[in-house]
Amino acid sequence: MKYLTFKLPPARSGAGIGHHLGNLYLFLNFAYRNNSHLISPIFLLHGKHNSSKFLRTDLSRYFQFDSVIVDGKNFPIIPYVNSIDPGNIEIVNIDQKTYDSCGGCLSKSDLFSCIPNHPMYIPTNSTLIGIAKNVSEIVSGKYTCIHVRRGDRVFNLKTNDVRDEELDYATSPKNILKFAKLCGNKKVYIMTDESPDFFSSLLDSEFDFFFYKDFDILNIKDNFLLYQIENEIMRFADKKVSTFSVDYSVFHETHKDFYDFYLLNRKGHT
Length: 270
What we know:
This protein has helices at about 15-35, 95-100, 110-115, 125-140, 150-155, 165-170, 175-185, 225-235, and strands at about 1-5, 35-40, 45, 55, 70, 75, 90-95, 120, 145-150, 155, 160, 185-190, 210, 240, 260. By secondary structure, the chain is α/β, with parallel strands linked by helices.
C-alpha cells in the first residue's frame, strides 16, 4: 500500500483542534479512497484558543493514531515523524488560496467535497482518556456535563460590546441553571472557554458545580489538551449538554444522539 500526506500552507485563520480534526478526517477519507496509508501532516493550532500560544503538531498527542477505525477495520494514521523513505510518500499540496477561502476548514474545498465519506472514528489519546476517567471518578456517581462556549463568539474583542445577544443569554448562569435542573443530576461539570469566575453565582445553587480549576490533574498549560480531556469527561457524563446543535454521527455511529440538550438551538461547533 502507498503512503500519502498533505502539505498545508501557513494558516491565516483561527483554526483550533476541532477544525483540524475535521481536516484530519478528510485526509483520512482521501487516503483510504486512494488505497494509501495516511501520514499526518503538521497542523498549526491558533493561539487565540491557547493563551496566544500557537502550536505546530501532527495531533498525535491528542488522538490515538494506532486505534483509528475506517469501514469497521483498523486503519492506523502514521505520525509525522517516521522512518518511511520520503521517496515513497505522495504529497498533496493545499494551496494558500484554497486554505484561506474556506477559513482553514477544508470540507468546503472541491478537492474533498466530491469524495463519498466512509464511516470513520479517530479516538482520543488513551492517556487523555485515563485522565478524564480519573476526574469522572473523583466527581463520582451520575453527573451532567455542560459545554459553555462563549469567547469571541459573544463579544467583539476590540470594542468589548456584546455582538450575539442570543448566545450571551443562552450561555448565561441563569440559563445554565435551567438546564442543570432539566438534567436532574446534583453534580454538574462545566467545560468552557470562559473564566470560571463568570459562573460564581451558580455556586450558591442547590447543585455542585465543578470546573477544571477544581482538579490538580487538569492544571495543564496546553488548552487543546485540556479541551480534549474535557471532551472525554463529557463522554463519561450521564447527561450531556452542548452550546450548539451538533451532529457527530457523521464521524461515527457511536456519536449518534450524543447530546441530550443544547443551550441554543442553532447549528455550530461545540
